[in-house]
Amino acid sequence: MSTSGPDATTQPRALPEVEVRRSARRRKTVTAFRESGRIVVVVPARLSSAEERRWVEEMVRRVERRESRQAPPTTDAQLQVRADDLARAHLDPVLGSAPRPRSVVWVDNQQRRWGSCTPASGTIRLSRRLQQLPDWVVDYVLVHELAHLVHGQHDDAFWRLVQHYPRTAEARGYLQGWADAQARGSAGPVDAD
């Protein structure tokens, strides 16, 4: 059984292989997990076909959302898509339509910065060191750099825009703690910008 999310008509995407298992022992709970490359959804045996379809769609969305949060993007193409998704989710609602970068790339030559943005060319560069950090921290750095496409300086308007990413304070604290730990074992501190 294959299902698709609500946006499947607007964006073609590969549909996951889904197996539904009905359990006579289950009364209320529904669970889902990956097994051998497919998503397995376990539902109570008493569910109607309509309820099963609704739960399968919901649980596939949950598994895919969880998987997308588990690791930061590793390719430049994935990073570009993630930047566009973050702009749509956190900046477009505030600005109407946030500017989109022309390119978003991983770089190896940023040892003292997490990211940088050149608004004139619409280029965002993220330090490849971020790939070892949690995805929500990478998302914060992307939102931070996306905000520079609107506000070049770290002024109040810039920070108000960045604050629309819900984990801003947490990510800034994480990056500062990580930088402090690295500084104790290396030649110097790492800038958070």
What does this structure look like?
- The chain contains 5 helices and 6 strands.
- It is an alpha/beta fold and 193 residues long.
- The protein has 2 domains: 53 residues, no CATH class; 110 residues, Zincin-like (2-Layer Sandwich).
- The protein has a 3-stranded mixed β-sheet with strand order 1-3-2, with helices on one face. It has a 3-stranded mixed β-sheet with strand order 4-6-5.
- A hairpin with a 4-residue loop joins β5 and β6.
- α3 packs antiparallel against α4.
- The radius of gyration is 20 Å and the shape is elongated.
Please summarize what this structure is.
This protein has 193 residues and is of the alpha/beta class. It is 42% helix and 17% strand.
Write the layout of secondary structure elements.
Elements: E1 18-23, E2 31-35, E3 38-44, H1 49-70, H2 76-95, E4 103-107, E5 115-118, E6 123-127, H3 135-148, H4 156-162, H5 168-185
